[in-house]
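Hi all, posting the design record for the shared folder.

TITLE: backbone redesign
STEP: 1 of 1
STRUCTURE INPUT:
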């Protein structure tokens, strides 16, 4: 399958690395050439430096022969524009759109776009863990992709440290803390919160 990925941040690079291993033909577009350093050394796809809402850039990346476009930049408006261009101008059969603002998901859906909202997915997974106290992990499926969220008790060595100081596996992303009192702190809001006994680290990974 020919797949074009708009955005080579953490999600875009991770998606490109995973999909090329499955044998797909991958093109990645990003305004910054430095972003492509996140791709694995074995990556055999096509990298194009340019603004992903530029039709000429998208043509250079092979959008006219694409079966799927994934708009996963860090900006909701850019993702929407890329998706609309892919759908309405180039008639790409399937378009996936990443968005951060869950309140906009209904609007995207009305435009016939397939949306993935990390905020909503994370909240759902955390709710599953909280409501099922006997379990320390939860999974959610989006098409052929499964995201796993695991709540790991803070090791003794890391108590009194900040989330940013926690070591983790390369394939994992620490997204926050499930505090011992039941509260949740997302990583970007954790600030200088010091981990305590009873806290659990929330780790996400693709499975």
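Okay, here is what came back for every position:
SEQUENCE:
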């Amino acid at each position: 399958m020919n797949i074009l990925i708009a955005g080579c941040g953490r999600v875009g690079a991770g998606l490109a690395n995973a999909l090329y291993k499955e044998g797909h033909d991958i093109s990645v577009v990003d305004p910054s050439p430095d972003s492509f350093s996140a791709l694995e050394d074995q990556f055999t796809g096509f990298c194009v430096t340019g603004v992903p809402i530029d039709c000429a850039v998208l043509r250079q990346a092979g959008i006219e022969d694409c079966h799927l476009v994934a708009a996963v930049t860090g900006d909701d408006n850019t993702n929407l524009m890329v998706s609309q261009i892919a759908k309405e101008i180039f008639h790409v059969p399937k378009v996936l759109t990443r968005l951060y603002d869950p309140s906009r998901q209904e609007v995207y859906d009305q435009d016939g776009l397939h949306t993935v909202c990390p905020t909503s997915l994370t909240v759902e997974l955390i709710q599953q863990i909280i409501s099922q106290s006997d379990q320390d992990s939860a999974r959610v499926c989006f098409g052929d992709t499964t995201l796993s969220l695991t709540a790991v008790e803070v090791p003794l060595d890391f108590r009194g440290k900040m989330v940013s100081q926690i070591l983790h596996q390369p394939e994992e992303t620490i997204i926050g803390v499930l505090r011992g009192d039941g509260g949740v702190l997302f990583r970007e809001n954790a600030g200088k919160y010091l981990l305590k006994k009873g806290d659990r680290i929330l780790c996400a990974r693709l499975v």
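COMMENT: The chain has six helices and eleven strands.
Let me know if anyone wants the other runs.
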